[in-house]
Amino acid sequence: MANSTMSFKMAMHHVCLVVSDLQTTRDFYVDALGFTEIIRPTDFVFHGAYFHNGNVEVHVVQESTPGKLKKESIVWDHDELRTGLCSHFAVMVDSFEPFLDALAKRGESRVGGPRVRDDFVEQIYISDPDGNIIELLTQHSEEVGRQRRLDIFDQGIAVPVAPGYPVIDPREKFGVNG
User: Fold this and answer.
1) Fewer CB atoms near the end CB (10 Å): N or C, the chain?
2) What is the Cα gyration radius of the chain?
3) Model confidence over 11-67: pLDDT tens digits?
4) What is the C-alpha separation between 16 and 19, in angstroms, rounded?
5) Element at 54 (helix H, strand E)
């Protein structure tokens, strides 16, 4: 039994991902997502890298057997990716634009979203070179969130809340102001 005076408070330290190619991964996290590579402990005997951006730390390790990751990876279907019903980690960002611009320069784009939740957080999903999914979130004010919800619906790019659900006109669900 836990001591009643003990604290179970936690803070996320890092996410660790297995990758197939360190240099390709390094290029993605540094160039497309703005991470800085940081010093990794020298006592590890396997290849890897550490990246840091704000309060987010991503550790990557090279797969132990070449080709294993591709052979054994989960393949998410289109509806799972676009709605975020897949394994992923999420980071809060001020704006999607720098990330989407950097991806576009690489010939890539988001794999899921956009969707504005009831708390006015907008979600999109991107994929790293090995198919690891990253959710980018941005918090809107109520006014901006309602307008953004209408805009993405009117542009035809809104996604449903989950696979098998329809995209609902925000005017039907929330009234004329979305």
Assistant:
1) N
2) 19
3) 889 999 999 999 999 999 999 999 999 999 999 999 999 999 999 999 999 999 999
4) 10
5) none
pLDDT of residue 2: 58
Distance of CA 106 to the CA centre of its chain: 17
Q: Collect all residues with Cβ–Cβ distance below 8 Å to 130 and sequence separation of at least 6.
A: 17, 18, 19, 20, 21, 25, 69, 73
Residue ranges of alpha helices (H) inside 11-137 are 22-27, 68-72, 78-83, 97-105
The two tokens of residue 135 are 């959710």
Q: Which of 3-7, 54-58, 128-132, 173-177 has the lowest mean pLDDT?
A: 3-7
> Rounded to whole angstroms, how far apart are CA atoms 73 and 111?
17
Lookup: tokens for 45? 């005997």
> Counting Cβ atoms within 10 Å, is residue 22 exposed (0-12), middle (13-18) or buried (19+)?
middle
pTM value? 0.91
